[in-house]
Amino acid sequence: MSTTKFLNVGFVHPDLGIGGAERLVVDAALGLQSRGHKVTIYTMYHDPAHCFEETKNGTLEVRVRGNSVIPRTIFGSFYIVCAILRQFHLTLALLYWDRQKFDVIFVDQLSASVPILSWTGAKILFYCHFPDKLLTRRESILKKLYRLPVDKFEEVTTGISDCIVVNSRFTAKIFSLSFPNIKRIPQVLYPGINLDSYDRDIPSKVEVRILESRKKIILSINRFERKKNISLAIKAFAALRNNQLVSDGEFDNLRLIIAGGFDFRVQENVEHHLELEQIAIQLDLETFSINPGSFNSPPESTQVVFLCSFTELQRNFLLSSAICLLYTPSNEHFGIVPIEAMYARLPVIAVNNGGPKETVIDGETGFLCEPTPESFSQSIASILNGQFDRELMGDNGRKHVKDSFSLTAFITTLEDILKRVVQEPRNSFSFIGPILVSLISLAMTMLIWKIINSYYA
Prior knowledge:
By secondary structure, the protein is α/β, with parallel strands linked by helices. 43% of the residues lie in helices and 16% in strands.
């Protein structure tokens, strides 16, 4: 273990793609590394064509483990079981193959490996974006049965962590309700963004030129997942025309760009993209999709563009070119996209619940609305019609992010937490935890495989 003020920090993250959780992990690693700490990221999946630049250009050390034995799913089902087993595989590789020693390990999204990681001698910080048990639908008896031990396993393994951190007060409240047997109150650490990465010049590359248009851009950024409620953005956009909130001529000069994380391996991404496209077509909107690797420009007449996965350059161009951002998820645990948009001087129109209530100042940096097309479209129209000063809102938003959500503030607080955790006595559960959880794991695995075998018999 390190004896200097600099720490050896490991990160364990399931899939290192381009989502908000991945951005947080990458920024945390970059920030700590810039302050002299040694950082290594372990992940079960890393696609150089679908990741943040810093994870593939050598800036950060990324090690892919646990991806060679267990599949992502079993015939499209049992995703969480496979994720747990893949993380066990990653952890065993870390312990017995790499033999890596850390002062502290930052684990997020999946807590399954916490008990095993605790045997390394490292302290464990678990960053909870949102309880996994609340991120899945339970539409069948089979799903409900196999989630019972998984949910209990999540609570026990999370509780073994030496330190638990959450991304918002909203998540802290949900965490306590979801895990009543964890008596500790998690610390709130708001994610921050690297302001410099949003201030860079945008070169005129082909990936940017395909997005250029004479039309005014209304922007939505979210992964192509049903829980993100992206259809609300499409319906609100159509309501501008259908409810005569703008003239036909003004509407013809508008374009909705829906940009988001998209992975062909993820069935929901593929299915939901097609669902959203059908919704737009049914609302008599002309659509165009830009798939990963494509550089085809949409016709100028296109009203809704689906940008399936995007680069940092494309993100920065859209944030600098749009007139407002639509953020449609309900009960979102935090949401980094509104922070990015406000720093780019974009008014944010978001749902009046969850994380945005802690980040968007209603009437000053954007609007908090009911999750209906009528409410969202009226807020959009108020910006288009000049009822609210878009530039003033933009300036307010940028200052708000600088003051409260900078990466510097995030890293300073995270660094203090990590140093404190290293110095504090180990969580009293950590010594008996691995034994207890091993027994639970064995029972859980036997039950799960029995259910799987009966399901496919």
